[in-house]
């Protein structure tokens, strides 16, 4: 709705939106500025997003990070194909781990073992993996030619798409069942339901801890250390609830992270070999994939045209959705998030060539669309993207993490997590522990490539700018 309404508040199938739509009776699609018809979305994507050569992220971000981002965000970004744009199937609107447990109770029940709180699993070559859809009959999205005995069943229906997603699904499934074992030792009298529910809360806590202290820590490039401590908010007014916004969904299309090929041990795989590959995860095992993904550079997101041609259609879809929803201009969002609007395309990109092409298509900087603005904005020094991605993304992200009910004074105590041991699991969680407590041999595991990013920045500083001369 372009106005405040009870329906859009109370019906949680709607995403929220930060700014109202451009009114339909405005002179131009972006309001009063710009051309009477916006440039073709495919043309915009080809001109400004299409990768000619791979630009590695200067912060050293790797594929382990890229797949974490995709896995994590697809619990709350689930645009409903059936109901249309502006609707979501992820009714928890945040970190509810619907991607592990399903977005509804029926699906959750199919995925549960109903013994000791655990999720169903299968054992292959002595290792634990998600069950097939034969054992856990839930709908998964796979190409028709893939037989049911090859289709793995997890909370999120799209995770068969990439071995990197199924790898994370496997790690978290092992973690859930591991936590159930620990809880049962402490509470031998607890029934399946209480073990399951408490393990889920622990995994939600672990997720938030890892997202803040490993994931956001890496993304920020900060030298100061971030800390997940909900008690920081206990003294101030804060509402423990969250609603996912369409603008957050638009902003989080970070497909430039994806490489040209996927390198595992001494093999290189194309998109055609990697996408919907149902054997790769078990061929290599979790350790080898974690190691490979942690060592492979991801692409820089903003400031360079860096989307692989196979993924360009996704970006085109983002632009088309923003037009259907009549999102306001990039500059209007800059203002809404406390930034000065750009006064020229040159100021936005920090150069002339792309700026001139943008100006030819959009005519006025105030008519530039939201997602294109985020991607073409000059990146900050040695950074993965520009100022706007940070200033707009961070508030959405922090509210989504700290607005979780487990962070509220009512929940944030040991008993919520089954006692001191469970609380300790939350308060000491890390990416490294998540992986290494669930595999036999601990691989190289991080969100940046060895020696990449911060190390490189520190080295450059120690050297000093004149040393290069
Ligand atoms: C939410 O809105 C959609 C679209 O109008 C509708 O189909 C759905 O039934 C509504 N949900 C509820 C719980 O009212
Ligand atoms: C899937 O990956 C394996 C390596 O694990 C490879 O041998 C196989 O060719 C790939 N499948 C397809 C269809 O490309």
UniProtKB/TrEMBL annotation:
Heme b binds at residue 255. Pfam families: An_peroxidase. One of its GO terms (cellular component) is endomembrane system. The active site is at 74 (proton acceptor), 252 (for cyclooxygenase activity). Keywords: Dioxygenase, Disulfide bond, EGF-like domain, Glycoprotein, Heme, Iron, Membrane, Metal-binding, Oxidoreductase, Signal. It is found in: Endomembrane system. One of its GO terms (biological process) is response to oxidative stress. GO terms for molecular function: heme binding; metal ion binding; oxidoreductase activity, acting on single donors with incorporation of molecular oxygen, incorporation of two atoms of oxygen; peroxidase activity; prostaglandin-endoperoxide synthase activity. The keyword RNA-binding does not apply. Gene3D superfamilies: Haem peroxidase domain superfamily, animal type (1.10.640.10). This is Uncharacterized protein. The lineage of its organism: Eukaryota, Metazoa, Chordata, Craniata, Vertebrata.
């Amino acid at each position: 709705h372009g106005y405040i309404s009870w329906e859009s508040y109370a019906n949680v199938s709607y995403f929220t939106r930060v700014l109202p739509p451009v009114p339909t009776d405005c002179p131009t699609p972006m309001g009063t500025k710009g051309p009477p018809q916006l440039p073709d979305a495919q043309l915009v994507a080809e001109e400004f997003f299409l990768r000619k050569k791979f630009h590695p992220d200067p912060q050293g971000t790797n594929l382990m990070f890229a797949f974490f981002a995709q896995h994590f965000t697809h619990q709350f970004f689930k645009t409903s194909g059936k109901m249309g744009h502006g609707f979501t199937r992820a009714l928890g609107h945040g970190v509810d781990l619907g991607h592990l447990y399903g977005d509804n109770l029926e699906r959750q029940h199919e995925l549960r073992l109903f013994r000791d709180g655990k999720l169903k699993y299968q054992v292959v070559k002595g290792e634990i993996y998600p069950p097939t859809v034969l054992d856990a009959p839930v709908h998964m999205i796979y190409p028709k030619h893939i037989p049911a005995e090859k289709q793995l069943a997890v909370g999120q229906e799209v995770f068969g798409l990439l071995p990197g997603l199924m790898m994370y699904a496997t790690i978290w499934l092992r973690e859930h069942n591991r936590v159930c074992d620990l809880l049962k030792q402490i509470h031998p009298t607890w029934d399946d339901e209480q073990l399951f529910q408490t393990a889920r809360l622990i995994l939600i806590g672990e997720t938030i801890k890892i997202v803040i202290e490993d994931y956001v820590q890496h993304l920020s490039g900060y030298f100061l250390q971030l800390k997940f401590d909900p008690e920081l908010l206990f003294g101030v007014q804060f509402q423990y609830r969250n609603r996912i916004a369409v603008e957050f969904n638009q902003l989080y299309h970070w497909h430039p992270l994806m490489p040209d090929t996927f390198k595992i041990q001494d093999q290189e795989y194309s998109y055609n070999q990697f996408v919907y590959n149902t054997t790769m995860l078990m061929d290599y095992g979790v350790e080898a994939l974690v190691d490979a993904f942690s060592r492979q550079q991801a692409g820089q997101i903003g400031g360079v045209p860096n989307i692989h041609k196979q993924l360009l259609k996704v970006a085109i879809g983002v632009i088309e959705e923003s037009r259907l929803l009549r999102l306001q201009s990039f500059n209007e969002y800059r203002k809404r998030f406390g930034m000065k609007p750009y006064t020229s395309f040159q100021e936005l990109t920090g150069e002339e060539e792309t700026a001139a092409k943008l100006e030819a298509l959009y005519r006025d900087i105030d008519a530039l669309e939201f997602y294109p603005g985020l991607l073409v904005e000059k990146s900050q020094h040695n950074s993965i993207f520009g100022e706007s991605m940070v200033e707009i993304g961070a508030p959405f992200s922090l509210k989504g993490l700290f607005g979780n009910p487990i962070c509220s004074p009512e929940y944030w105590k040991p008993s919520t997590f089954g006692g001191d041991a469970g609380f300790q699991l939350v308060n000491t969680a890390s990416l490294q522990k998540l992986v290494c407590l669930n595999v036999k041999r601990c691989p190289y595991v991080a969100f940046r490539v060895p020696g990449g990013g911060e190390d490189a920045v520190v080295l450059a500083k120690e050297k000093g700018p004149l040393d290069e001369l």
